Amino acid sequence: MIQLRVTPESSLADMPVRIHVSGLAPTQLVTLQSSLTDEKGVNFQARAFYRADEAGEVDVEQAAATGGDYVGVWPMGLFWFLKPEKLFHRLMKRDVMSGPFCFQLDLFDSCHLFPSPQVVPLATCTVERWYVGPGVERVPIKEGRVRGALFLPPGPGPFPGVIDMFGGAGGLIEFRASLLASRGYAVLALAFFGYDDLPQVLVELDLEYFEEAANLLLKHPKVSGPGLGVIGVSKGAEVTLAMAAFLEQVVAAVWINGTGFLNGTPLRYKGVHIPHIPYCPERLLITEMGVLDNYHIFKDPRDPAHAAAAIPVEKAQGEVLFVVGEADRNFNSKLFAEMAIERMKSHGKKNYTLLSYPGAGHLIEPPASPVCSISLIRGTPKPVHWGGKPEPHAKAQEHSWQEILKFLDRCLGLTSNL
């Protein structure tokens, strides 16, 4: 009897699963397909073609796909290489508490590029991918000026605290915070514009807002101190670096494809004011696919005229982890990371680590996330080009997530369940 097994059938979204087929004829050609409808009703699919071995089995951990959405040995390829039915849609869990993403896996005989509803699969199964572990609690935060959502692991604690931020689209994105909370951290998913009663447009980085958020988190009875971690991507990474430089509470900072300068928005903190490097919208490129390529709207940070806009990262007392996608098309994140590290070195600092991934793009996310090189975002009239090639980007997401967890564990004193 032909069987399609996925082990485990229910797991956290950043955990690997094993896909195994048995009962086939020796060397039989089959199609494995994954499909999912997201919270916006957009369908995502991935498929790959495999040949059974002499025992009539396909073990995706060891077998190489011969074609489809990927080629070669990719144990999680049916998740990493999901593509939207509607172009430029990004698969992202928006309501992490409402339940898991439920994937359907189908096994078809022979090679099927686009299986029709009339084609009956040889076997099928459902896989649950959760963004919150059992007992994780979500607490909406609307205290003082701070807006966001606090995720607390089960139990009395106290737990190491982390602030999690995303970038220039604004709003509140929670899937990374909920996964980190499932690993034992108390995580504040922090909004800083475009959410609730916060400003809809970001015109200034008021670092006192982020200091208020840090103090609020550390005062929580289930959060251990005296320090906390911060993780951010894109504009959130810029904020992360500024927090590391100015706030003594920050003992671990994870910077993912950000900048080391104030770009587009100045920074204010008590008596400190850091000017910004203006954008150059006239350098914006529109590709043949009608996609926005922002890479050239950022001026060269090496120009001495922009020296005053640099974030004084040498002031950081905690550890800083730089995560770089070398094929980032949003901006030259590799250059920004190298300049920040050189600045730290020139002041005798050694509290930095660099992870740099050739072929990876801007949106380096947990390994649960499909590779996304182009997507629609809030506030832009056309989709944005993030860069990255599928295979190296998928590997970067898997490796960097494990390294981020190790880094936070080391700096904040938690031994997580990897």
From TrEMBL:
Where is the BAAT/Acyl-CoA thioester hydrolase C-terminal domain positioned along the sequence?
206-412
Q: What domain of life is recorded for the organism?
A: Eukaryota
Q: Which residues form the Acyl-CoA thioester hydrolase/bile acid-CoA amino acid N-acetyltransferase domain?
A: 14-143
* Keyword Lipid metabolism assigned: yes
Q: Name one Pfam family in it.
A: BAAT_C
Gene3D superfamilies from the UniProt entry: Acyl-CoA thioester hydrolase/BAAT N-terminal domain (2.60.40.2240), alpha/beta hydrolase (3.40.50.1820)
Which cellular component appears as one GO term in the record? Answer: peroxisome
- Mention one GO biological process in which this protein takes part, according to its record: glycine metabolic process
Which family, according to UniProt? Belongs to the C/M/P thioester hydrolase family.
In Swiss-Prot or TrEMBL terms, this protein is called Bile acid-CoA:amino acid N-acyltransferase
Q: Which organism is it from?
A: Gopherus evgoodei (Goodes thornscrub tortoise)
Q: Taxonomically, what lineage is the organism?
A: Eukaryota, Metazoa, Chordata, Craniata, Vertebrata
